[in-house]
Amino acid sequence: MAAPDKPVRAEGSLATHSRASLPAPAARTRHRLPAESRASRKISFRSRTSVRGMIPVWMPAQGLHRRVCFESKLELIFITLAMTSGKVVDLLEQPPAVKYRDASGKERIHTFDFLITMRDGQRHAVAVRPEERATAKRFDIELALIGSQLPPGFAENVILFTDSCVSSADAINAMRYFELMKQADPEADTTIQEAIRSLYRPVSMSDLCAATGLAGRAYRAAFRAVMSGLLRQVSPGLIDLNTMVAKGGAA
User: Fold this and answer.
1) Is residue 117 domain-shared with residue 75, that is, in the same domain?
2) Which single residue of 7, 73, 128, 176 could bond 143 by disulfide (Cβ 3.0 to 4.6 Å)?
3) 135 and 20, same structural domain?
4) Vertex 226 angle, CA 251 and 179, to 5°
């Protein structure tokens, strides 16, 4: 694999959503425990310095929920951004380690934080680091070196994801969307879609929802509509009742 000058930074690429982001919750298999994590190493959930845990994630490529472990809040943010982007069909945390030789020629091993598979079949190895630490250690240079020595078939590219790659608003919006997609409400979704079809100018989320008479159910459905492209967010930032929206390209 040819060595890239620098690893790709995930600047906004996973924060852009499409209508095909996630299957309708009602279409998923119900009342089944998530499949086990596929991480190549055991992850300790005990830490005094970082947020660690596990969340069930819907894997479109496998048609099931699977436990995905994370070792920091930034990793959790990446998971939700990736799996609500509509572009990622599979995500493996802590994939098998790869061997490489550093600048001095010494053999080392590196474990990426994630290996993601896109809808077009391409795979990307992802390293998640705080921006300050990545910059101080010039981690992008090391990552480019690792990327130039990946074993055949492991990944087509390497991505460096830091806290500078996503705004706090986009991160929160993705995490909320991730949670809202877990509960099906076909009636509210249909009602909002009907309201969207009659839109001819931007309106606030509050006015759009009030017109349906479904209160909080309408807001949750409208939020899903924004993230899936049925509605277009006119005023940037955190999606709330004051957010101005218009008919989206997917409507």
Assistant:
1) yes
2) 7
3) yes
4) 130
- Give SS3 for 186: helix
Domain that holds residue 240: 185-247
Q: CA 236, CA 2: separation in Å to the nearest integer?
A: 38
Cα–Cα distance measured from residue 242 to residue 235, given in angstroms and rounded to the nearest whole number = 9
Work out how many domains the chain is built from and give that number.
2
Instruction: Give tens-digit pLDDT for 107-153.
Output: 999 999 999 999 999 999 999 999 999 999 999 999 999 999 999 99
Mean pLDDT by 10 residues, the chain (251 residues): 52 48 48 88 75 90 93 95 93 97 95 97 97 94 96 96 95 94 91 94 95 93 94 94 91 58
Contact in structure between 123 and 115 (CB atoms under 8 Å): yes
Q: At what angle do helices 168-180 and 73-83 cross, to 10 degrees?
A: 60
Residues 6 or more apart from 222 whose CB is under 8 A from it?
Answer: 192, 205, 208, 209, 231, 245
Going 145 to 151 to 154 to 156, the CA torsion angle's sign is: positive
3-state secondary structure of 59: strand
Q: Looking at the whole model, is its pTM more than 0.70?
A: yes
**Pseudo-torsion of CA 27, 119, 220, 71, nearest 10°?**
100
Same domain, 228 and 161: no
Give the up-direction half-sphere exposure of residue 34: CA atoms within 13 A in the CB hemisphere. Answer: 14
Distance of CA 220 to the CA centre of its chain: 19
